Amino acid sequence: MPLGSFLRLFLDAVKCDGMSDGMPTMTHRTTFALDEATALRLKRLAARWGVSQAEVVRRAVARSEQAEAAPKTDRMSLLKAYHAKGGMNPERADQWIREIEEDRKHWRSAS
Asked: CA 20 to 30 Å from 95, out of 63, 67, 68, 111?
């Protein structure tokens, strides 16, 4: 989500919740435990974004909720539609397999 869109959504939410010194009025306090790696990631994001750790959590929750509500791609339907349209012709399929095999040889030799 572009920052401008996020800010508009954030400001709309703030209008509903009320403001205090330019910050939204928070009405719920929550305590939760994090493993060390997650706590460090939270602190790094807060520092990078120049916001509080609570704001990082609010943004993550909002983004997760949006992602969950987004339409899901039905991969099986896409595959069936691809095959219904004829799929890949056998010559192209053979060429593609050869390309993959060649790429894998180079990948294995590089490791």
From this structure: 111
Rounded to 5°, angle at Cα 85 from 83 and 87: 45
| Segments of the chain scoring below 50 in pLDDT | 14, 17
Same domain flag for 8 and 51: yes
Please give the distance of CA 75 from its chain centroid, rounded to a whole number. Answer: 19
Tokens read off for 15? 């209008």
Strand ranges for 6-97 from DSSP E: 19-20, 23-24
Same domain, 10 and 47: yes
Residues, the chain: 111
Encoded tokens for 100: 């993959």
Q: Tens digit of pLDDT for each residue in 80-95?
A: 888 888 888 888 888 9
